[in-house]
Amino acid sequence: MGIRTEKWNIAFREAVGFRDTQTPYRKVPGDAGGWYADPFLLERDGETWLFAEYFSYRAARGVISCCRFKPDSHRFGDWREVLREPFHLSYPQLIPHGGEIYMIPETEEAEQLLVYRASSFPDRWERFAVLRRDCRWVDTTLLPDQKRMIAYALDAGTPQACLLVSAETGETLRDLTERRPLLLSRPGGAILTEGESWILPCQNGEKTYGGALTFYQTDPSLKVFSSVFTLSPENLLIENEAAPVSGVHTYNRMGGLEVVDYKTETVSAVRIWHRLLQKAGVEK
Question: Which of 122, 137, 123, 125 is nearest to 186 (CA)?
Fold first, then answer.
C-alpha cells in the first residue's frame, strides 16, 4: 500500500474558451474525505450550478454532489450530496428538456444506462427510465440534436469501443471505433457547438488514464473527426496550485463559466486510515 494517492480536483474560470492557455483556473474547494471530478454546469432561473462525482475514500464509491455559484464573491458555495445509489455514480450529464431537468450519470457498475429526473431541483432525483440493460457503458454523452448519444462501451466485443446510440431507445446505431482518432478516446464533457461544427471533448488515454483532453471537430454526420486542440497538464494553469498537475479528463462550460477537473498526487492520512481499516476487515 503506497502512501501517495491520486486526487482529482475541480477548477473554474470565466468562459474564455477551451483554447485559452493563458487565463488560469481557480480551484473549487473540496474536503479531506475524498475528491471531486467530472464537473458539469447547469444554468437555471438565473443561477449556475456545478454537479460532480464525489468519490469517498471510506465508501470507495462515487455519489453525485452539487454546489451553487455565488457571483458576488465569485466562488462556489458548499457541496451537498444529491444522488446516492448502491453502485458507483459519476459523470452527471444534465439535460434540460420540456421544463424538466434530467440526468444521465455513469452507472456502468449497475450494468444499465439509467436516466434520472429532478423531482425537486437540485436536491432530489428519481429514476425516470432504464434506457438500456445489460451494458457496461461509461461517460455516455448526448449529442446536440438530442436524438443520439456517444457511449464508450467496455463490453462491445472489443476491449474498448466508441458507439453511436439512440437517445430514445438505447439501440446501438453505429460503431465509431473505425474513426481512428476515437479509438482510445471516451467522452470528456458535453458537446460544444461552433457555428455548424460540433466540438467533442474526449479523454486522451494514450499514456495514462485521464492524461489529457483532446477536442475533436466534427459535424452531425460524424464522418470526420479532426483534432483542434489538446488540453494537457503542461498547458493547464491552476491558480495557487502547489502540487504538480498530472491529468485532466473533463471540460464543460455554461452560464458564463467553464470548468475542468485535474489530477494531482497527495499524501492523504484519511485515505490511508480507511485502507488500513478495510485491510483489517473493519470496513468493507
Answer: 137
Q: Is residue 204 pLDDT above 90, yes or no? A: no
Residue recorded with cell 434530467: 102
Q: Looking up cell 457496461, which residue turns up?
A: 136
pLDDT of residue 1: 44
Residue 179 pLDDT more than 60? Answer: no
Torsion-angle region of residue 91: left (phi > 0), alpha (psi -120 to 50) or beta?
A: left
